[in-house]
Amino acid sequence: MLPTQWGIPYVLWVGAAALGAIALLQVLYYLILLVPKRGSQPVRQPTSPVMPTRPAGIDAKQQLAPVTGGKLVILSGLANVDEIPLPSSSFIMGRYYHPENNIHVALDERSISRRHAQFDGVDSRREYTLTDLNSSYGTGLRAAGKLQPLPPGQRFRIYNGDEIQFGQHIVIRFELPGDKRPAPTEEPAQNVRV
After folding, report:
1. Residue 84 resides in a domain
2. How many separate domains does the chain show?
3. Which domain range does residue 96 map to?
4. 3-class secondary structure for the chain?
5. Are residues 102 and 162 in the same domain?
6. What is the pTM of this model?
7. How confident is the model over 111-122, as pLDDT tens digits?
């Protein structure tokens, strides 16, 4: 026969006390997690695409000048956004807005990488490039009904009116100062007698 107190075996009392102690430790641990650490700031994630603004802590002298009159026209893939003005002459497009990492254009869609592609422009020369930053689903130029993938890590010249596909669904037309993409030249005719 097991020793008892009030008709309940001591083994059950010890087990109940152990479970109570574990529950108390879990509650204390949870309360410790709720107390903010000194010097920490809460991280805020955008719930929808964010329109670019001047990042906090960067004055106008440090900010790169935007490409004059340039904008991104959203053709498909993003709801509630028709166009985005170019925030500067050099910026990164990614899934989340993060100005500290130069991500000034948020394309909030599953197939967009956090750091998807980089835009660089020299407004005075009217030259613009796009570089795929080794994104998971890629970046491509849509021309003549075909998708030409951009090689990751290589700068690719873009022109006014180019349609670029980011990931699987987002298609953007770049409206930039300058010329449209030159039409492809035809192959020279061979063995033609005049």
Report:
1. yes
2. 2
3. 71-175
4. CCCEECCEEHHHHHHHHHHHHHHHHHHHHHHHHHCCCCCCCCCCCCCCCCCCCCCCCCCCCCCCCCCCCCEEEEEECCCCCCEEECCCCEEEEECCCEHHHCEEEECCCCCCCCCCEEEEEECCCCEEEEEECCCCCCEEEEECCEEEECCCCCEEEECECCEEEECCCEEEEEECCCCECCCCCCCCCCCCCC
5. yes
6. 0.58
7. 999 999 999 988
